[in-house]
Task: structure prediction
Amino acid sequence: MRPLIAVAAACLAAGCANPPGGDSAPAPPNFVILLVDDLGWTDLGCYGSDFYETPNIDRLAADGVRFTHGYAACTVCSPTRAALLTGLYPGRTNVTDWIPGHRRPFAKLKPPDWTMQLEHRHTTLAEALQSQGYRTAHVGKWHLMPRLDTEAMMEYTPDRHGFEINIAGNEWGAPGSYHHPYARDDRRVYPLPDGGADGDYLTDRLTDEALRIIEQFQAEPFLLYFPYYTVHTPIQPKAEDLARFQDRADPGKRHRNPAYAGMLAALDRSVGRVRTKLAELGLAENTVIVFTGDNGGLDRTGPDGRLGSPTENEPLRAGKGSPYEGGVRTPTIYLWPSVTPSGAVSDEPVVTIDIYPTVLEIAGVSGDPGHNELVDGLSLAGILRDPNAELGRDALFWHYPHYHNGGSTPHSAIREGDWRLVHFYEDGRRELYNLANDVGESRDLAGDMPDKADELLARLDAWRAEVGAQEPAPNPDAR
Result:
């Protein structure tokens, strides 16, 4: 493994900041990765919300690069989390559903024997940076370990994947409650340091822990991975935040859920507090921040056309757990201080798997023994320097051989340029959309353009074979 001094040397070429005191060797950059659960593509002010208020996140976008075509690696959470930490498509890791997934014993198809943990055969981002002398911490939702086997669970906790500190990372995909003691029945948030009292709010408490870690790590390069539990259900804002938005909700607006608005307000304050702490400690100019979501917003409109769930993803179709854009498109913002042009916007399609190679390139880490030899993602460092640059990738892929309450049946999808094709396993159906003309995926062109559909399906099939994507099988118990 390369010593930290070599990382610093590579940093000099990458444009990292000098440490305080004028030392000639540049300080290796810090990294803060903020992953929001169930964040919809239009949920932020800087992404067009007409009700939710997110001034701190909007300021982050104004200081960095905002991607208009940012994607999660999957339509649900656990696969995206594994993808972020490995740079690999879910179809390659075989972590293809949220853990443990929905049971459909009588469905037409039976899901494959998929992987319900982040396997140790992969080198995580934390392990790669830790090998170079980085301090590493995880704060928040993990959801990459089996739920039902206590002994097996302990093999896959964050501290077994390169994080020296783990706060609140466990088998659960959502808290029992956002209010202290953050529990309901057997669902609880752990491990947490002692402390807390009635009235404490989970997003605030986890932010407190994140700020303490930044203070603890400030003298050394660090990775802080902060995957929020919010804005996942249960939709439970702080009372004062709910009151702030209740009287302002307008049924004529796209976004009109005051409770959800309150949860976003708490998230926004958290982002602001993290940036303030970095500035107070003199770390802001040498800390790269990545902000994104793990899947699309939870959007299930009721039969009368009224909002039947937390948010609304219009103009995108559907939301979390669906095969459409609303299930995978999510806000994505990168800030590389003194490198990214302020207020830049990129229309280049980017995805969760790009975080891994981007961070390692900025850190000057590449080609080391023990790191993943194969990474599906592409480094965005060039685009962060010049948002008008092109990434050189011509297609993105998704694979979800499962059923989900959000509307998914087993499917795979490909985006190539402006074209998006979804292939459904149950009946072999193909749906073809042109996102440039129809971002809401309202006009299926597969019947009108069979040659284009055939072309994209052939490429999708080739990708599935290349990564070893598991396929569902006929279910003998189907009814």
Remarks:
- The first helix runs from residue 4 to 14.
- Residues 1-10, 302-307 have pLDDT under 50 and may be disordered.
- The longest strand covers residues 30-36.
- The CA atoms of residues 366 and 459 lie 29 Å apart.
